[in-house]
Amino acid sequence: SYLLLGAVVTTLELMPGAPAAPDPCGTCTRCIDACPTDAITPWSVDATACISYLTIEHRTAIDPRYTAGIGDWIFGCDVCQEVCPWNRKVTPTNDDAFRPRDGLRDAEIADLVRLDDRSFQERYADSALERPGRAGLVRNALIVASNTGDERAIAAAADLVEDGDPVVRETASWAVGSTGGAGSRSRLGALRSPIPPRGRTGPEPSTSR
After folding, report:
1. Which helix (H) or strand (E) holds 41?
2. 170-175, long-range: CB within 8 Å, 24+ apart, which pairs?
3. What are the residue ranges of helices labelled H in the chain?
4. Distances (CA, A) of 131 to 95, 122, 142
5. φ, ψ for residue 41 (rounded to 5)?
6. Whole-model pTM?
7. Maximum separation of any 2 CA atoms in the chain, in Å
8. What is the CA radius of gyration of the chain?
9. Based on the number of CB atoms within 10 Å of its own CB, is 187 exposed (0-12), middle (13-18) or buried (19 or more)?
10. Is the separation of the CB atoms in 37 and 51 below 8 Å?
């Protein structure tokens, strides 16, 4: 089932191909059992729980019930493909168009967390990783940093709790609050502390009678 979906719009009259086998899976449930977020049920996938959807297409903060299941997947997920018995004899493609670009395979989580708009465009413009945008990719990296306990990435996350993007801010605060060291959590607490109104130095006036 490793394939690239695509579409061709044409006015040509084309003969349909042979129908697919009605049940190529039999009693196999490996993809269902292996899905990290339980997104797969017999003959159905809940896209809103699929890691590929969450890390690529989802535009807001990711529901915390799925963050642990994301594991170390920063972009997409192939668990269901990897466990499918039909894919055991797949021959890797030799097409250069499908090979990873230089700098993509060995990217450090901390470097992804530190991406700003300019560095994101310089590194990932015209690549598949452009799809989630800078906010989505940084959000994903923050989740992975928390899941893997990457100290360098969590330290970098402390700088994002005041980021200009609300998705990045929310995810950074979550990552630092759940994983960060005492210094990072102290900084987060200071940022969250309410600032008293200017000019008021004494206690709040009593409202009791």
Report:
1. strand 40-41
2. 170/61, 171/61, 171/62, 171/138, 171/139, 171/142, 171/143, 172/142, 174/61, 174/64, 174/142, 174/146, 175/142, 175/143, 175/145, 175/146
3. 30-34, 51-56, 64-70, 79-83, 109-113, 117-124, 133-148, 151-157, 166-179, 182-192
4. 22, 14, 17
5. -125, 170
6. 0.80
7. 86
8. 23
9. middle
10. yes
Give the amino acid at 37.
Answer: T
Tokens of 112: 């992804």
CA quadruple 112, 117, 120, 122: dihedral sign: negative
* 59 dihedral zone (left: phi>0; alpha: psi -120 to 50; beta): alpha
What are the b/e assignments for 96-121, b being 16+ CB within 10 Å?
eeeeeeeeeeebebbbbbbbeeeebe
- N- to C-terminal Cα separation, the chain: 73
Output the tens digit of pLDDT for each of the chain's 209 residues.
887 788 999 999 999 988 877 788 889 999 999 999 999 998 899 999 999 999 999 999 999 999 999 999 999 999 999 999 999 988 888 888 878 777 677 789 999 999 999 999 999 988 889 999 999 999 999 999 999 999 999 999 999 999 999 999 999 999 998 885 554 455 555 544 443 333 433 344 334 43
Strands 40-41 and 44-45 turn out to be antiparallel
Tokens 């670009």 -> residue = 101
**133 C-beta neighbours (distance < 10 Å), count:** 16
